Amino acid sequence: MQATITTATLHGVEAVPVEVQADVSSGLPVFGIVGLPDAAVQEARDRVRAALRTAGYEFPNARVIVNLAPAPLRKHGTGFDLPIALAVLCATGQIPAATFADLSAVGELGLDATVRDVPGMLAHAISAASRGRELLGPAGSEDVVSVVPGLGFRALADLGSLRAGLPDALTLERGGPCGPQPLSVRLEDIAGHETAKRCLEVAAAGGHHLLMTGPPGSGKTMLARALAGLLPPLQDKERLESALIHSVAGVDPRAIIEGARPFRAPHHSCTVAGLVGGGTPPRPGEISLAHNGVLFLDEIAEFAPAALQALRQPIEEGLVTLVRANGAIRYPARVTLAAAMNPCPCGYAGDPERVCRCSEGAVSRYLGRIGGPMYDRIDISMRVDRIDPSLLLEHGAKRPSTDDVRERVVRARAFAASRPPGDLRGSLTREARAYLASAARASCLSGRAVTRVLRVARTLADLEACDDIGSGHLSEALAYRCWEQS
């Protein structure tokens, strides 16, 4: 007897449909799985056999062959456990095959027959909804899959519960965008650093990459963590995109679904694959996990040069493309990059109170680890020095609040969206055009650097609701490229 159950396998951030075909025939007892399964899928044989027996079903003492079609597509993950078990039950007549005709099933089985969550539940939900199918999956996944509009979800706690029939279908709907989530660091908690706070506002309004340079303990990390709170609340499309990447990577997406902007801060020992994605099977990297949010690279000069250079194309294009022998995988990576570093190995170059003991060659090698092409892709660079201790001890001092700055950021983005699209150069006044040309020659700016100065100036104009880019906007934008003036 034969039976077929529909499921899917992950390819990038998509779930590709797969048919699980089970054939039970007479012959020597064997349980084989074919169709390019990986080790996790092959191990499903033992999990499925034990789970069926625990749930009170009979595992056939016959030749059982499971085919995963299409055969040329590599299959990976433990999500095939449930559909394989269902296919065997249907092929042996223990459950009518028509029961699962309009379903897509996914889930890992425990030896006690429980159905467990797997990475990529959101991708499976999107795939099932796009094909007009209901999703049969582990109980407890309702909060994750509820972000998919109109999905019919049947939550299965264990295989034994199928004796009472399929669980009821839940049509899960989630409302509009959630409000901002509680933040660990707010602008009003940070004393001083008024120029740095202005840079954060500009970066949030225009999605600009920024670099903070300063001695240890000057507040660079706090400022970076405050940046995520200045971004507008996630919209439905952004929330679904970011939650999907987290789900595929096996990271809990519930905070993203509730509206929190992603904030990722990988350690400087992070590898190329960990930063931009890769591995076997391929997995999204930190830059994709930060999609629609902030990627914070603390001590950026300590990262491996190869890892930093691998970031160059993704942060410019907003997309990671991993090319493999069997095809290309693409992960979204539209982030605001926030980086922090010391000005030298000891950290005190340029400090008015502490003496730097690094040689000129050591400083040059340290700064050279980042590389000119990477510097060229950073829009805003600022010096962050330690503040006077008396500012830290002030009580009741009035400081810019995260909520106020976020409102200005939202207004600036709305003004930018209302402008007719066009070349940035068309917004320059005659005086501004002449000023930029002179400044670019004096600082030897590359074509990319000139374009990025224009983008920052355009954001500054949007914050003031100005249609044209003036010399004042350009002057402030150029002041934010401090490494080209040192």
Tally of individual domains:
2
CATH topology of the largest domain: Rossmann fold
| Strand coverage percent | 15-25%
Radius of gyration based on Cα positions? 27 Å
Q: Give the biggest sheet.
A: 5 strands, parallel
Key words describing this protein structure:
five-stranded parallel sheet; 486 residues; 2 domains; single chain; Rossmann fold; Ribosomal Protein S5, domain 2; 37% helix; 19 helices; four-stranded mixed sheet; alpha/beta
Would you spell out the secondary-structure blueprint of this structure?
Layout: E1 2-11, E2 14-25, E3 30-34, H1 39-42, H2 44-54, E4 63-69, H3 81-91, E5 103-105, E6 108-109, E7 115-116, H4 121-130, E8 134-138, H5 142-145, E9 151-156, E10 169-172, H6 194-206, E11 210-213, H7 220-230, H8 236-248, H9 254-257, E12 263-264, H10 272-276, E13 277-278, E14 283-284, H11 286-289, E15 294-298, H12 305-317, E16 319-324, E17 327-332, E18 336-341, H13 360-368, H14 372-376, E19 380-383, H15 389-392, H16 402-418, H17 430-443, H18 447-463, H19 471-479
Describe the structure.
The chain has 486 residues and is an alpha/beta fold. It is 37% helix and 19% strand. The chain is built from 19 helices and 19 strands. A five-stranded parallel beta sheet has the order 12-15-18-11-19. The chain has a four-stranded mixed beta sheet with strand order 1-2-4-3. Strands 5-8-9-10 form a four-stranded mixed beta sheet, covered by helices on one side. Helix 17 packs parallel to helix 19.
